[in-house]
Amino acid sequence: xxxxxxxxxxxxxxxxxxxxxxxxxxxxxxxxxxxxxxxxxxxxxxxxxxxxxxxxxxxxxxxxxxxxxxxxxxxxxxxxxxxxxxxxxxxxxxxxxxxxxxxxxxxxxxxxxxxxxxxxxxxxxxxxxxxxxxxxxxxxxxxxxxxxxxxxxxxxxxxxxxxxxxxxxxxxxxxxxxxxxxxxxxxxxxxxxxxxxxxxxxxxxxxxxxxxxxxxxxxxxxxxxxxxxxxxxxxxxxxxxxxxxxxxxxxxxxxxxxxxxxxxxxxxxxxxxxxxxxxxxxxxxxxxxxxxxxxxxxxxxxxxxxxxxxxxxxxxxxxxxxxxxxxxxxxxxxxxxxxxxxxxxxxxxxxxxxxxxxxxxxxxxxxxxxxxxxxxxxxxxxxxxxxxxxxxxxxxxxxxxxxxxxxxxxxxxxxxxxxxxxxxxxxxxxxxxxxxxxxxxxxxxxxxxxxxxxxxxxxxxxxxxxxxxxxxxxxxxxxx
Amino acid sequence: xxxxxxxxxxxxxxxxxxxxxxxxxxxxxxxxxxxxxxxxxxxxxxxxxxxxxxxxxxxxxxxxxxxxxxxxxxxxxxxxxxxxxxxxxxxxxxxxxxxxxxxxxxxxxxxxxxxxxxxxxxxxxxxxxxxxxxxxxxxxxxxxxxxxxxxxxxxxxxxxxxxxxxxxxxxxxxxxxxxxxxxxxxxxxxxxxxxxxxxxxxxxxxxxxxxxxxxxxxxxxxxxxxxxxxxxxxxxxxxxxxxxxxxxxxxxxxxxxxxxxxxxxxxxxxxxxxxxxxxxxxxxxxxxxxxxxxxxxxxxxxxxxxxxxxxxxxxxxxxxxxxxxxxxxxxxxxxxxxxxxxxxxxxxxxxxxxxxxxxxxxxxxxxxxxxxxxxxxxxxxxxxxxxxxxxxxxxxxxxxxxxxxxxxxxxxxxxxxxxxxxxxxxxxxxxxxxxxxxxxxxxxxxxxxxxxxxxxxxxxxxxxxxxxxxxxxxxxxxxx
Amino acid sequence: xxxxxxxxxxxxxxxxxxxxxxxxxxxxxxxxxxxxxxxxxxxxxxxxxxxxxxxxxxxxxxxxxxxxxxxxxxxxxxxxxxxxxxxxxxxxxxxxxxxxxxxxxxxxxxxxxxxxxxxxxxxxxxxxxxxxxxxxxxxxxxxxxxxxxxxxxxxxxxxxxxxxxxxxxxxxxxxxxxxxxxxxxxxxxxxxxxxxxxxxxxxxxxxxxxxxxxxxxxxxxxxxxxxxxxxxxxxxxxxxxxxxxxxxxxxxxxxxxxxxxxxxxxxxxxxxxxxxxxxxxxxxxxxxxxxxxxxxxxxxxxxxxxxxxxxxxxxxxxxxxxxxxxxxxxxxxxxxxxxxxxxxxxxxxxxxxxxxxxxxxxxxxxxxxxxxxxxxxxxxxxxxxxxxxxxxxxxxxxxxxxxxxxxxxxxxxxxxxxxxxxxxxxxxxxxxxxxxxxxxxxxxxxxxxxxxxxxxxxxxxxxxxxxxxxxxxxxxxxxx
Amino acid sequence: xxxxxxxxxxxxxxxxxxxxxxxxxxxxxxxxxxxxxxxxxxxxxxxxxxxxxxxxxxxxxxxxxxxxxxxxxxxxxxxxxxxxxxxxxxxxxxxxxxxxxxxxxxxxxxxxxxxxxxxxxxxxxxxxxxxxxxxxxxxxxxxxxxxxxxxxxxxxxxxxxxxxxxxxxxxxxxxxxxxxxxxxxxxxxxxxxxxxxxxxxxxxxxxxxxxxxxxxxxxxxxxxxxxxxxxxxxxxxxxxxxxxxxxxxxxxxxxxxxxxxxxxxxxxxxxxxxxxxxxxxxxxxxxxxxxxxxxxxxxxxxxxxxxxxxxxxxxxxxxxxxxxxxxxxxxxxxxxxxxxxxxxxxxxxxxxxxxxxxxxxxxxxxxxxxxxxxxxxxxxxxxxxxxxxxxxxxxxxxxxxxxxxxxxxxxxxxxxxxxxxxxxxxxxxxxxxxxxxxxxxxxxxxxxxxxxxxxxxxxxxxxxxxxxxxxxxxxxxxxx
Lengths: 480, 480, 480, 480
Known about the structure:
Chain A is 27% helix and 23% strand. Chain A has helices at 34-44, 72-76, 129-138, 148-158, 164-174, 217-222, 260-265, 277-291, 307-317, 346-350, 355-358, 374-385, 417-420, 423-430, 440-445, 457-460; strands at 22-28, 52-58, 63-69, 88-94, 109-113, 116-123, 180-185, 189-193, 202-205, 211-214, 226-230, 235-240, 243-248, 257-258, 271-272, 275-276, 298-301, 325-327, 351-353, 362-367, 390-395, 434-437, 454-455. Chain A is elongated. Chains A and B meet through α1, α2, α6 and α9 of A and α1, α2, α6 and α9 of B.
């Protein structure tokens, strides 16, 4: 149980994408195998976090917890899930946005407080956590981890003179920023979403009764649950032996759903807050084609994140779609890095250009976003090596110019290429014949009259909730 | 080091596909990091075998070997490849076709014999191994594994009075069946292909000198080697300090390249024996569309194996292509199986239908082949759950009706649904509205005047090399 | 990170001894490798706890922590201790007395509170922890583990308006029971001993400056420190850049050093609170010989715990000492248990009688204590099998009749054979020809005019600090 | 499965002792749990080899094998021994004497040959293995490991035209050097001892029928078998459904039992070839006292190997015996080494002087042997630090001046301090006040009229079997 030091496998991540955040899952289903349902639910949410995974199960009397660093199947490999009997469970997959990559920061947290036992799993990021933590420590709280989540836990404990729901409501008055929470007591399951509804959270029903909540609807599908609705901004759902009750925990504010979920994070088969992810991505590609029509022979995606948009581009432009880059499906986290002798092979290990398809062609290459630009320039070079005549790089999102404070680990602004350099210079740096970002307007039009319901801060700097001083963003850690 | 017992994770394999066989890789490149090149080469060949991996390195004086059960990155995780210095190396990824799934059967084999040290890695399957092994044991040989490869090793040792090349030539007279071999001595690298050229094997060149041999050209791409040519039927390539020499080890027989490499096994970005895999698959889809034109709203693939053919079908039919089934990319080998409570979730964990795309539509679902039919019937049920109106299942290969004895683990004939039931009954069993296999003629036409250069035994029973008695096929094991 | 469930390897412990408790270690030595010194110190204290181990290091700015389940070398195997740079460190080895055997209960605890960061390691057991925890939760504290230690942590945090030393002093007013603590801040090391001084704690000096505190003096020897003195009852030692300062944290009460440390727990090469452990044990044997003189041919120990006393018995009686039972030094924690077929082999795997030495002899077998009696009866049977004529079992402690509430895991009273049955019945049950316990008076006389300085509650029921209701003793857990 | 490279944990061994060799175990007992009996038997033999362990089980039809690197409990931890059903089994623990420390060299070997399947485990070392291997490879044998054992396997296979017993007899004509073998076929168990009977091997009987063979009698005790007799020089024991049969495989030569078994290797509770190990060691001490009477206050052993001799010295001299050095029982293989800062702590981690016992005293320190002298000089320094006035080092064996070629890994002669320097210089180097080796004559007298039955080559250079050229001793490896 390491509590500090460098995140493991740090160098093995492909650095040119915003990092995934977290996924949460909860199920209340007496008579069902809730631990196993949660295991499969987390499996479906694995793309939202690959650093740690955990499940807590309630059986009416107590909570049992198992969590560790690693992918869902790694963490639970060899575990006898049948030992985790209960009627309700919550689960979490994590990619660290705050707090070091460390076992002590793995979730769910399970703790004992005046109200009994409580388990909690959190997706999102608070913006006022430093102030809240200071307030709590000044009156005697202690913190063993560097997560936002432990702050929420302590706030709930402080407010626990009456019911848990009321404690959560009081807590919501304190919390600023993004939080989609699932809570587990000995006898009930709660789901909570912040008043802006930054991060997704939806509710489903199981065939023979029972409810499921999850970050994305694909997890409902996986466990055989029917989607019912999204959890509303500021809503508290409580599920127990009396069934499902809802209350407004705090007044909703303007919706600010993370738009990057649609661009990159969410699974294409999920729908959230009214939109199907795959459809949105396809439409981004169509709009790209209209905004940036080029003479070309092929449209190719950067798999997998650019595939849907590339297909949209091809449809709208009439240019044939081809899979010109073959992805190695076995690239994992324990990959040995190339040394000096092979320094140019890095991207090629992951993506191999199909020369047959590409040689002599003019190509539109579609990706979802450009963060630091390093991978893109290698891809362009690789395409040229494969005999491509022209490369036009089309991105299905506007330029990322600001950091996110609501649960996504974009690089800081000094590393964001679009924050530092004009378009033409970027194009030259990556040696593309053309470079086009989807316009902000083009992106928003996809959502029609719902266009104002999204957080676009990373493109516009228009932060729905006040952000901390730059110097402290993402810097708090137990070690500081 | 387990030498017997049930293969691990047996139940975790999706049982409805022919099993991948093995992949081999070899490099001769003094001055380069040959161990690391082999590591990356095996990475690119990982789809050919996920049970064990190994690398042997020669430094002019000795051979060093490291191998274990697991994926390439698992086997070498934490290994310091820099310790494996040398000028030549061979590597192997394995999916057991003969011999139990056991560390003792992992390859390469490295052994000491009268000629010094020798490493050997094998892709393929011998048909006369029982007779050869009996002949060898009767004159004093011992066998520690149940692999064909150890038989080849012992034959070479018996013929080693003169040069290794001559020993290999004598050995080729004895061997019947499929073998693509790479051999490593202290000072040289050899590549050998059987006279029918069942399994692929190609040669590439490195920029600053040095040669690479690999099962598929995608491995050449990955390590930055230029494709030179395929190894010829019956050819022995020898690479040492004097460069590359070729000799005809045995008279070539009629070519019998495994046609299933093009249908399912090989990576789409590989080209082998004159044909690009991706193009062949696309063309299969186009021919499917012409052979079986249906009224439908969508063409969807069963990802990833049906993707290229589905795209071809869409092109030829004009019916829009959609990714209607979302694949969970994190499904791995250590997956905990659903229990009784969730027995219908098995396929859904791997593939999730996108309801938005599918609901109310008539769908052509394209897959590469139908072996036992169990997965297909679940997929059809899942599509119907998602509101699909009609499902037409199109397969880009003819019915698989016979077992393979040349290195592929198809089920035995009693389990092959097409060997047991007429088309219409299969259609009814899987509850599809239509079912169509690509015709044998349609398949062969793709290869034009080269149509007779392929082994089609699994479709036709036309075995290019006499096969063993049914009772002994694939049954030898150390335990027997 | 398992937080509940059955302790692992529970069945593999030999159940007939009181369980070891915990060991603590601390070092303040700028310029030295404090992590490694702590590692070796814990190594020397390994006999005090084999379930988990941990080290926290302070570098003036922050605390780093590593801990896990397992023996010291297992926990730190493959860890690069050189990464843990600092000027002070604390360490802990644990055998769970309260709290489940679980990673979440491993120590040290490291947490952030109003005063900065604090690390804490604890040996002992509080008797009023349930009341303290209730008081804390009622005012908003949360508990993630089931250890006493987390209660101490929260109390300190509540009292942290002024200095840490004052917070510890306030905390000592609340705490009842046994505690030897080491605390680590960014810049200082503290050592605290309860006012009865139940558990040992001593201070040593390093050659070039620097201080060490440890549960036993053998740990000072191991790291090359000179013993200075024992920490006094109720004393707080503070070591920082200004050197060592001492203050009386709370008024000392009557000394109540655990007498079982001398009988069984402590290493023979330690001296604590004025007495050398080996000498005390030897003297126990001498007194046994005088209290229970028998006609016998040999004195044999039950190794290793009975060895020193057996030697004393031999000296005083003149009967030759022999090692009649050979101990297998490789018995470890991962031992596969005998099944029905071999149910009588259990003790024999650990101890083998040397027939040559024993056959035909009358034997005095010396052990340190008798808890449940199960092992003793097997040993007697084994000796008789080896041809022993007479077996006299002599125990170097009085009958254990009461549970310990101060940090030792004796069985509960229903399982203590001496609490349930008269001496003669016990003798018959274990089938010995004679059975003798060292008398209480004989034991105390060893300590001369210090005889009243010890806790003898497990023999006498004379508890120096009020004990909790029987029903709650050792029963609190996070799961309850 | 590493086949080459440096032995793991090489540096963690305390280098100043001859290395243990191997232990073998076999059981034939239909109806009993033979795998588990073998597991416990290997446990009792663990002191003979800690690098790898393995068990092969025969069920009348086939052999199952499991082996790996590590201690017996580590190798079989988590294994379900109940899966290894059978009526006979063999096992092996190994410390590499020839062959690298590598999984490929772990034993038993299990192989298929003309006669069916055969398992083989070997304790000892052949002196003509290079010639035998050359002869075999020249006629077509291949070797996958660098062990002597694979050579024996191949010889047996070559001679297998008739029965296995006859093949073994022919093989014994070829083999020179030391070998105690257990062999396992589908239906029988064999035990074989070389004509000099270098290494121990004994036979025992189980209560309800069934036989056990083992390197040492302590393993018989552990599994509840009664010792019957030692296997005779050149004898072949065959156990099958017809019971036990014995035949003289080869004419016995002069007995040459390894005398170092009695000095250091064997467990004290074993008796072998007519002598109880503990008694021999005690007598060595008595003779030491007579040969080297000194004025001293205490006799202390270097635990554990010097304990029995120290006790003998004390008895004969009348000087009190004390345990002046406390051994840390938890020192294991995964121990992190001290760095420069703590370079003098090395021995202290393992052995701690008890100052109370030692301070101001004149001490006789008894150890079994002196190989390189490095540890002894540290021990003497440590004793002086603890206030010892005089240190007389007494060794219960004569000076080790020659290498062993029969299965023990003494250092080579250049490293043997007694081969390089005169006694007085050694005494000065280790800074002892006196140094005495047991005389050759004194050692041999212990064995009375059996004094010529032992191999004393390491003391005398009188090798019973011709040894290989120095340059090749112990140097063959697969890599050479």
